[in-house]
Amino acid sequence: MTFRFADKIVFGLLFAAGFLLLTSLVLFNFGTTLAFYLLSITLLASATGVVLLRDVIRSAFLLALSFLCVGGLYVTLHADFLAAAQILIYAGAVSILFVFGIMLIRNGGKNLQEYGADFRGLAGIFVFLGLFSLLAQTVWKGQWHLEGSTTPADLNTVAEIGKLFFNQYLIPFEIASVILLMALVGAIVIARKEVASENGQ
Amino acid sequence: MANEILNIGLKHYLLVAALLFSIGLFGLITSRNLIKVLMSIEFILNAANINFVAFSHYVTPHELTGQVFAIFVMTIAAAEAGVALAIALSIYKHFQSVDMDKIHLMKW
Amino acid sequence: MNMPFLTQNAWLPAFFPLLAGTLIFILAAFQRKANQAAIGISITGVLLAFVASLGLLGARFADSGHALQGSLRWLTAGQTEIAMGWSVDNLTAMMLVVVTFISLLVQIYSAEYMSHEEGIPRYYGALSLFTFSMLLLVLADNLLVLYMGWELVGVCSYLLIGFFTFKPEAAAAAKKAFLVNRIGDFGFLLGILILFYMTGSLQFSVVTEAVAAGKLPGALLALAGILLFCGPIGKSAQFPLHVWLPDAMEGPTPVSALIHAATMVAAGVYMVAKLMPLFAQATSPLFGSFLVLDAIAWIGGITALLAAAIAVTQTDIKRVLAYSTVSQLGFMMMALGMYQATTEAGHLQIIPLGYTAGLFHLMTHAFFKAMLFLCSGSVIHAVHSNDMRVMGGLRKFLPVTALACLIGTASISGFPFLTAGFWSKDEILLAMWEAHSPLFGLAALAAVLTAFYMFRLYFMTFEGSYRGELAPEQIHDSGWLMKGPLVILAIPSLLAGFVGTPWTPPAFHIHSFLHFSPVGHEATGHAVATHTGLNPVVLGVSLFVFLVGLGLAWAMYGSDKPALAPQALAERFAPLHKASLNRFYFDELYLLFIRWVVMGFARISAFFDKYILDGLLVNGVGLFTIGSSETLKYLQSGRIAYYALSVVSILVVLLLAFLKLGFGKVGM
Predict the structure, then answer these.
(1) How far from A170 is each of A167, A173, C474, CA to CA, in Å?
(2) Which residues form the domain of A170?
(3) Under the phi-then-psi rule, with left for phi > 0, alpha for psi from -120 to 50, and beta for the rest, what region is C584?
(4) Cross-chain CB nearest to A56 (options B20, B35, B77)
(5) Alpha carbons C30 and C79: distance in angstroms, whole number
(6) I want to staple C250 with a disulfide (CB 3.0 to 4.6 A). Which of A99, B74, C173, C300 is the partner?
(7) pLDDT tens-digit map of A132-147
(8) Which reaction does it catalyse (chain A) (predicted)?
(9) pTM for this one?
């Protein structure tokens, strides 16, 4: 089974899932359960696609799709502000960033033969299975102390988050803004054409 | 059993996050394209975010501390993505390729 | 003489020479020409010590009760306390007088003998320190101070033998003396340690009482005894460690007189006598029925005969005297080893028979041997050579010396009745006869040889005609600083024997003064009459021995045309003669031992150290590190993906392992 075939399978699944999602949300009122399952399956499928696909630009688009799904999951968790932020930042900015990056690289590394059954690939699969089984066991068998109640639906998340930001987490908030500034400046410095040093000093 | 499947609880979200994390890790290790590696890193960060929000929803419903952390993570991830891509472009300029297997200057 | 002061501070005789020696060394450090001052200070010191010793001897005569004792606390370690203590009993008093007397005479003699040499302050400083060390040894009341004095005399001997720094043979001889002594001292120290460990104390009295109370099992006591005896084997030049004494003759003659005739070598005999209560209780045999005392006697006997056999062929005048000293020391040890064993209440009781005889001979030997050495010094000074083959007929040039030498020779050979040596040797033979010892014949043979080689020495040096190359005017007699001590020493060489005749009143008899008392009593001196007259057998043997020796020597060396030609005799007994001339090859044997055994060990150790410890362990570790790191460096491939892979996979493995092993139960 080559991965070209896998391409088609994945795409097919995605289309189906997306279709089902939209229709179910519109037509039925199954609530969170269905939403959750559809969103998570889409998410996992597109994540697999990102990792396995040979064409990096297709991976980029699937990345955007997975971000959207994550945003949807946030909605089911009653984190509305976070969902909006996720879509804005990740699907809106980070994905575009990746697309731009791929664009600036000629060929975008399109023709890179990803892997055969080489050592790294097999090792990666083993790591994947090992780690997942570990985490799954921990999750499934753990005794989580749940309060029983969940977030009230009418909670004003923006206000609450805002309250937390400006009371307890003020300093991390400020530091985060500084980090953003640093990243901005840093990215520019790293990526610009360094004329002086390229002249061979 | 059916109850477990139908009633979505904390465990389901955590499981999804775990799976997403593992996929991201797999991509991180096995990808030959540098950009793919960066994308896998975003998956890892997102998985963590899902964990945070799920915990916030189920364990501390009245405090949104988990969501606050998720916002921080998003911020940092965005910044990191920018800088990482800048570095990737730099590498491309130097090596004329983004093949991970060709970048091994720091070897013995 | 302020007697109470003296008796309470019986350490004074040792203090004066110490002070003198220290002053001399300090003086010499600051002043270049300090000869006169050094001589003066040294002689003053030893003179004061002599006077004090006489005083102490008188005190002992007056009151032969408890020993004079005192001590200074020195070290305390937990329960054990080690003190610097002194104790003056009769034996100590006698030794004090002998040592200081001879030291004084030797120092006076050296003033003229060494007048042409360099480094006089060093010489006198060492002589004074030697005197101090010997007196310290003699005054000791515990084994530690004894050992200290023991080692110190060894050091001073080293300094004095190697005095002529321009002579490499002297340096070699000094080293040899010290090293051979050290071998003996090692055994000595082991013996001391055994005693200390078992009895918890080093004091003579405490140790003897503890041994009598049975704190030491018999076999261990025998072992300690023989180990302790190793010290005298080294110090008193017994077989097999006798090799250093003849070589020590490289030192100046007065030094030989003092140290290697009269005092230091006598320290071994002194120590055996002092520890006799211990040896007398060593009733467990070393093997068979051979007790420690038997070992002492046999070693003494072998030494006596061996040294006498070597002395008959030597041509260096000092060497003959050196071997003679070794032989006489053997006699003393033989005497000390004589005992009578009775079985009382199931166990063996030992009564030492030759205790007094050995010490008597020690005293007389000190006098006449010192005199003989000083005579030889006088001869060497006159003729500028040690070799007897180029001497002869020196009686007309050195009359006083010749007479003194004749007296000394007569004494050592046992000229009947009139000489000190006769009486002391007679005592030894008597003790051996009473003990029914098989060594009696051996002693008699050694005595014959003694008489023979001593008279040989006298005849070759002073009789006949001069065989050397110097003109008669060049042979000059010595001054009175050298002749005086000779004359002074001649007196006790003749008269000292009279304290031990059967006709001496008991109050003055040496047996009363120095007799062995078993444990529980100190060396007290109540009148003990042990003689009822002369033993005819022993007397006969003594006379016979003397006449045979004298006769043979006269026949072979008495005149220029000998009746019995020495050459012919040497050829007839060629192998024996050759062995004797080569000192029975002992030095060669030791050299072989050193080359094969000691150096063999050294080579093995060196190999082990160089190739195994250094090569395998040290360098090996280093090479292993380098090798492994050279191999491991290939892990750093520079590919980040592989790094990530290794990090994550090991993380997973570790997590699995921890979960399996139970670290961190996540709510399971």
Answers:
(1) 6, 5, 118
(2) 156-193
(3) left
(4) B35
(5) 45
(6) C173
(7) 998 998 888 888 877 7
(8) a quinone + NADH + 5 H(+)(in) = a quinol + NAD(+) + 4 H(+)(out)
(9) 0.70
